[in-house]
Amino acid sequence: MAGPASLPDPLADPHRIAAARRLAVEVSGPAAFDRLSGLAARLLGAARATVTLYTDRETVVGGHGLPAGAVGGRALLTGPLSALTVGSGRPLVVPAAAADPRVAAIPAVASGEVAAYLGVPLVSASGFVVGVLAVHDATPRRWPEDGGALLEELAASVVAELELSAARSAIGTTAARLDIALEASGVGIWERDLRTGTVSWDERCAAIFGRDVALADGDLDEVLRSGVHPDDLAAVREAMTRADAGSGEYSLESRVIRADGSVRWTVSRGRAVRDVRGERVRMVGTILDVTEARAESERRMAAVQRAGAIAEVAAQMAGATAVPELAEVALRGAAVLGASAGGLTVREPDGGLRLHLTRRPPGTVADAAGGRPPVEGVVLPSGTDLPTGHAAETGERLLFADRAAAEARFPRLAEINDVLGTQALAALPLRVEGRLLGSYVVVWDTPHGLADEDVDLLEALAAQIALSVSRLRADAERDAANRRLQLLADVGRVLSGDLDISRQVAQLAELVVPALGDWCWLVVTDDQGRMQQLASAHRDPARAAELADYVYAMVAVMSDEATARVVTRTGRPLVLPHIDAARIHRALPDPATRRALERLDMEGGAVVPLVARGRTIGALGLFNGPERGPHDAAEVEAAVEVGRRAGLALHSARLFAQQRDLADALQHSMLTAPPEVAGCRIVVRYVPAAAGAEIGGDWYDAFPQEDGTTVLAIGDVVGHDRHAAAAMGQVRGLLRGISHSSGAPPAEVLTRLDRAMAGLAPEVMATAVVARLERPAGLPPGAVQLCWADAGHPPPLVVSPDGDVRVLDAPGELLLGVDGSAPRTESRVVLPAGSTLLLYTDGLVERRDRDLDTGTAQLAAVLRESAGLALDELCDRVLERLFLPDAEDDVALLALRVDP
């Protein structure tokens, strides 16, 4: 059984090819098509765009982003894709070409040169697909949902340009044929005798003038007065005089008045005839009635002009950045119909309607409204009793050819029409994908009938406007969302970048004003539930102090009905578009505080909770003046998120402070005061690291032995957390116990400590210096002998009585906790009376930006400068000069001075 007959190939359809060839041969140049394809590329964010015509072969007639020489040739990359579009007669949407079985085998796709494609057919006025408008890119991309519709709108403009070129060519061809007919045919032949001034014409010429018979030797003046339109009479006489005195060629288009009073347009041509002597004796010419041809030409030209106006307006609308600018462009499009004013009614984010009215030219409409319309537009009252609101609310198209018809439907228009001088009106809804975005209104100051082609033009303008309004709305929403995201990012940065919570909330207040309000405050509850002022900010820096004074007074006097207490109590946001006097009176019983609030010009506000781990610890209040208006839902949502992040930061800060206080107390409880030593003075210092709440592993110790000597010790357990602190307590206790019970010298104490750590605190490593003050016989008066051993710790420093500083280097030995069997050695030095010994941990001399040797040299320099200070002052000076506020490591100091 035979299969079904194959369908004809649309690409080979001779009628389609003829329609395409009609337009292709009249293409005047690529400029218009380059502009429209460039507009398509910019609107859809594509790298390249092409306008291709398909006769029996494809030809690129314009493009954007194409290589040199591409225009006028074949579409080397997108030819097969465009052929699919022409063949189907429908848009071809390809987000990822390599994965699309329809196009994956095409060479340009396989090579990766075309990864995404969106093309729509170009449909001529005769209904045939003659080409393609396409955008394409070298990377896959998801085209916008309305991309096809937008490209189809631009495709209509491309076809309009093509039809315009063809129409202009047709008009020129018609004019040429008309010239030939006037020169060669005998239709409407006339003759003027230059010697007598009489005129003659044949029957066909007489018929043009509405006469029944030919004319012979008629009086020229009488013929002109009775047959030529009065407005054209002077031009006819001038043309005759010019021909008689000049080249002898006569040509003129003018109107004639027939015997029945009707007016016809004619084209007359004539040429002087000479006698045998070469003198001009008569003028012979033809006349043709061109009334219908002229009317048809005007209609066609008007249609082309309207199509061109749509294309131009579409291009201008694509670049509009605000609704008032869009309204001006829309009026330029309606000016083709003679409109005197126009406007756009656009729905606001809060659901209300705002009218943007424009006039053309300014000042021609009655100025009873008090000057030109405001740039920001006019808020329309709710309801559908005016054409603008009715079209925007219901989607109904309204066309009124005269004022009476409009006022009969909408009585409220009478007063407005008196002000604006309106005599005719059209209102069309702005609709995109079924959504009503507003309305487009066009006004005439004279009665104006609307033909079908006029309505088509208005509908096309309304469609273009709706797309532009949708784009502006999407841009505004995206910009607002980006600003809110940036605000939240800045809030996160502020709340995570500083441990000083007071500085954090002050910066936070400066961020949310004016982004979310004209002024704001933050209040929190303490552990007893009392409200406390935390921060405030005003968009006018000059009023910041005034606002701070008000918030201080507000916290002191506010009642349980105050917004801060209500939100803190309920944990829910409170949005008040208008805060009336009665509510303020209930919240603030103190008259002076109420007067302070009045001076801040508050209209409404939004108060959101500061929430941390399910518990509300305070509130953030954001307030606006009358000019700004109430907070919208997006602003409240952003404020709630700010409150959540601020609550977590405040909660963390409270925990940090509590843990830091506890850590500091525990640390100091383990670092006891030094003993009294005869002939010597001992001063100790401990400074925790600036970052973090954990206690560290640095320690110092000094204690007397039973044999009368004094042991000094300083050390640092590896690590900076609570585990290091716990290990520090064990190591410090072991060292004191071993030394006190055994009375062993420093090297043996370190050896025993190392072995004890292996059993009691495995995997713990530490550095330490253990020193013992001895007074053997033979020492100078007041001097002491220092015997010490070093386990990987920074070396002690000695300041001699004359201010010289010496580093007590000892043989480098292993840290504690590495090898308990390693031998350890001792060193001895005599400290004369007046000498100062300094033991310290590495946090004092070692940082990221300097090594241990550099830090030790800087410490020696500070000691040299401070040698004459009292021991307490010397320790404070050392910490002041070497310990930075942002230090990441604890520091312990033990200083001993031998009395002079």
Structure explained in plain terms:
A six-stranded antiparallel beta sheet has the order 8-7-6-11-10-9, with helices on both faces. A six-stranded antiparallel beta sheet has the order 14-13-12-17-16-15, with helices on both faces. It has a five-stranded antiparallel beta sheet with strand order 2-1-5-4-3, with helices on both faces. Helix 10 packs antiparallel against helix 14. It contains 24 helices and 32 strands. It is α+β, with helices and mostly antiparallel strands. The N terminus is likely disordered.
The largest sheet is: 6 strands, antiparallel
Query: Radius of gyration, rounded?
Result: 48 Å
Give the beta-strand count.
32
Count of helix runs? 24
Average residue pLDDT:
84
Low-confidence stretches: 1-5, 361-371
Rough outline: elongated
Distance between the termini: 128 Å
* Secondary structure: helix percent: 40-55%
The secondary structure category is: alpha+beta
Give the DSSP E fraction (strand runs of 2 or more residues).
15-25%
List the helices and strands and how they pair.
Blueprint: H1 14-24, H2 31-44, E1 48-54, E2 58-64, H3 79-88, E3 92-94, H4 107-110, E4 116-123, E5 129-137, H5 147-184, E6 189-193, E7 198-201, H6 203-208, E8 215-219, H7 220-227, H8 230-245, E9 249-257, E10 263-274, E11 280-289, H9 291-318, H10 323-334, E12 341-347, E13 353-359, E14 378-380, H11 387-394, E15 398-400, H12 403-409, H13 413-420, E16 424-432, E17 435-444, H14 452-496, H15 501-515, E18 519-525, E19 531-538, H16 544-557, H17 563-570, E20 574-576, H18 581-587, H19 591-598, E21 604-612, E22 615-624, H20 633-670, E23 680-687, E24 698-704, E25 710-717, H21 722-742, H22 746-760, E26 766-774, E27 784-791, E28 797-799, E29 805-807, E30 827-831, E31 836-840, H23 852-865, H24 871-882, E32 891-898
Antiparallel strand pairs: 1-2, 1-5, 3-4, 4-5, 6-7, 6-11, 7-8, 9-10, 10-11, 12-13, 12-17, 13-14, 15-16, 16-17, 18-19, 18-22, 20-21, 21-22, 23-32, 24-25, 25-26, 26-27, 27-30, 28-29, 28-31, 31-32
Helix pairs in contact: 2-5, 5-9, 9-10, 9-14, 10-14, 14-15, 14-20, 15-20, 21-22, 23-24
